[in-house]
Design brief:
By secondary structure, the protein is mainly beta. It has 3 domains: about 40 residues, no CATH class; about 160 residues, no CATH class; about 70 residues, no CATH class. The protein is built from 3 helices and 21 strands. Strands 3-4-5-6-17-10 form a 6-stranded antiparallel sheet, with no helix packed on it. It has a 5-stranded antiparallel sheet with strand order 8-7-16-11-14, with no helix packed on it. Strands 9-15-12-13 form a 4-stranded antiparallel sheet, with no helix packed on it. Strand 12 and strand 13 form a beta hairpin. The chain is elongated and about 65 Å long.
């Protein structure tokens, strides 16, 4: 449900309030830019793939893939490690659904970000993973991205910006590995979406193959503060619908809204949460259903 009188879609992407495109159609900082190529989050200019009100999530395209190539002819090249994904304060990288991911052999990947601790003091976070393989037969995807040609690592919560780096480890990276796997790639990606292919370990065009980026999941908050603090804000309180409830988020400070049990719709709009008929499909599998006799 978009705000009344506002577009509810951009291409094939639904734009529910508090997100919106056009003057008066969104709550800051959920301004969506819509053009022929798709929907974009105006604050960071990343492409939007999907918005989920109930989970408080937005899937976007992460365009930043760091890579390094060391070719046997002596030419070297790097890219993507001078830029990173930087978000506004209302959006955080989901630490439960994304992973630092790297493909390559004798490759060290690092992610450097900024998080906030107690009293909202900022401090850096650094995490890494190492992948290794000596030849094509040594690359194994039977156990997923577990270190043989591909590795993954988690990062903490409340992270609003990340920068990835990919590099060959000098003491391990030899001419044999170089002839088979001259390039390494590192990026933050939605864990469920990424499926490792052994051919990635020897690829020289992985970054160009995913030139538009890879999907990541962001958690977003409707406002700062806890539910107990913000419910007294009147018109500034984001949960505007009757039969809606406030939920404290776990990924950093802030709250979001959901319709109360037995109701569905948009809790951010007045009148947005509608009563569910529990006896209609598919609701009867989710709620107790009792037909009233007349």
């Amino acid at each position: 449900m978009a705000r009344p009188g506002c577009p509810d879609k951009c291409g094939n992407v639904s734009i529910p309030y508090p997100f919106g495109t056009g003057n008066g159609c969104f709550q800051e900082p959920f301004n969506v830019t819509c053009n022929v190529s798709g929907a974009y989050l105006a604050s960071t200019k990343v492409r939007i793939l999907d918005i989920n009100l109930t989970l408080g999530e937005i899937r976007v395209q992460n365009p930043y893939i760091a890579w390094q190539c060391n070719h046997t002819n002596g030419t070297n090249s790097t890219g993507g490690d001078s830029q990173g994904l930087s978000l506004d304060p209302s959006h955080k990288l989901s630490y439960t659904k994304n992973k630092l991911t790297s493909v390559g052999c004798a490759t060290l990947a690092m992610v450097v970000g900024v998080t906030k601790g107690k009293n909202q003091l900022e401090f850096p976070i650094v995490n890494s993973c190492f992948s290794y393989c000596t030849d094509a037969s040594n690359v194994d995807n039977s156990s997923g991205c577990a270190g043989m040609g591909c590795c993954q690592s988690s990062f903490p919560g409340n992270v609003s910006s990340v920068n990835t780096t990919s590099m060959a480890v000098p003491d391990i990276y030899d001419s044999n590995i170089q002839s088979f796997s001259p390039c390494s790639y590192s990026f933050v990606v939605e864990e469920e979406w990424f499926k490792f292919d052994p051919l990635y370990a020897s690829s020289t065009d992985f970054a160009s193959r995913y030139a538009d980026g890879v999907p990541v999941v962001l958690d977003w908050v409707a406002g700062n503060g806890s539910c107990s603090e913000t419910s007294k804000m009147g018109s500034q309180y984001a949960c505007q619908a009757m039969n809606s409830e406030c939920i404290d988020v776990y990924n950093g400070p802030g709250y979001r809204c959901n319709c109360s049990q037995g109701y569905e719709g948009n809790p951010y709009l007045q009148g947005g949460c509608k009563d569910i008929n529990e006896c209609e499909p598919p609701n009867q599998s989710l709620y107790p259903c009792k037909v009233q006799e007349r």
